[in-house]
Amino acid sequence: MWWMMGENGGHYCSKKTDDICGDVCGQDSGRVLSMSRIKCILRGVDLRTMLFLFILVPTCVYGIYLHGQKISYFLRPLWESPPKGFNEIPHYYNENVTMENLCKLHGWRIREFPRRVYDAVLFSNEMDILTLRWKELYPYITQFILLESNSTFTGTEKLLYFANHRDQFKFVEPRLTYGNIGGRFKKGENPFIEEAYQRVALDQLIKVAGISDDDLLIMSDVDEIPSKHTINLLRWCDDIPQVLHLRLRNYLYSFEFFVDDSSWRASVHRYKMGKTRYAHYRQSDDILAEAGWHCSFCFRRVSEFIFKMKAYSHFDRVRFKRYLDPERIQKVICKGADLFDMLPEEYTFKEIIGKMGPVPHSYSAVHLPSYLLENADEYKFLLPGHCFRESG
Ligand SMILES: *[C@@H]1O[C@H](CO)[C@@H](O)[C@H](O)[C@H]1NC(C)=O
Ligand SMILES: *[C@@H]1O[C@H](CO)[C@@H](O)[C@H](O)[C@H]1NC(C)=O
């Protein structure tokens, strides 16, 4: 760290200069001595100015260049206050409690027959997580709806990964409504516009799948997986909220890195023709506690990390080429550190400071999707102690 050496060195030099001046100029007065005093002072000023100009200024500029984003994130609590809190609905579950009692515990009544359930996702390339998701939800889903595009949200071309690997998903084929949509490829446009465009197309596809009023519709990203028993509860109970957000446990890279339980974007809707719109933002105040898992960047291959980092809506985060270096990515994954070298996005200093640094390792693999544990050999990379990824 050359700039630290510079600072220490600077301190040392200027102290020495002071001493010299003190010695020479301290006791006596007179023309000759005051001349050397001026020289001393000049020398001092020179040194300090030089130090300032050639070490401190470039250091600061370089520091702001490297960490400007961090500084603005760290100061976020000053300019942004947290959104309004949710109405948290306690979630009761144990496999040996009857559905009638579970509904009652939530203040709801049990229905005579369950609602039909539709699960709709916008797909990019999350093959493994999609399998876990569909296997988890399989018993309760009437139609799986999947839309993919040949454009990423950031407007670069991509393959139709699902179409190319459709044979791996034979188990849902009889209940699958699949669609694809051509990208608009507008360079330099805000990625949220392409995303919104694809969500509108997904709305159409949901209708094609045959949804009708009061059917349940799950709106979430592929990696936001509601647990099986959560969906079973919601389809069996009457009086559940019209729009209900799901509080999911946030994981990073695998189930080894449990971040927090603050994921809230996933939601379940009692469908209303002409009113329900597919969205991924805050749509109501009600949220059900511990309703599943959100596994971000849970990929099998390093190349998938790179793809996702480039295709990500917040693509401005890839500020340096070295962020896409496979060796660096592998190290970051095993440490539980941040791929984009950023500070946690939080609303209070306490939370930011509490979450700085890598995510701690977790050694719990309890209450994870059942298909994952039943097929642990195939999905090792998602379990504690297996951070190494396939290259290429
Ligand atoms: C839970 O229910 C199952 C059958 O539904 C039964 O075999 C099992 O003994 C029950 N376990 C407990 C602890 O009550
Ligand atoms: C994307 O898909 C659309 C419609 O399927 C097609 O017309 C277009 O040529 C494709 N674009 C690219 C770059 O593959």
UniProtKB/TrEMBL annotation:
Keywords: Membrane, Transmembrane, Transmembrane helix. It comes from the Eukaryota. The chain crosses the membrane at residues 45-65. The lineage of its organism: Eukaryota, Viridiplantae, Streptophyta, Embryophyta, Tracheophyta. The keyword Cell membrane does not apply. GO terms for cellular component: membrane. This is Uncharacterized protein. GO terms for biological process: N-acetylglucosamine metabolic process. GO terms for molecular function: beta-1,4-mannosylglycoprotein 4-beta-N-acetylglucosaminyltransferase activity. It holds the Pfam family Glyco_transf_17. The keyword Transmembrane helix applies.
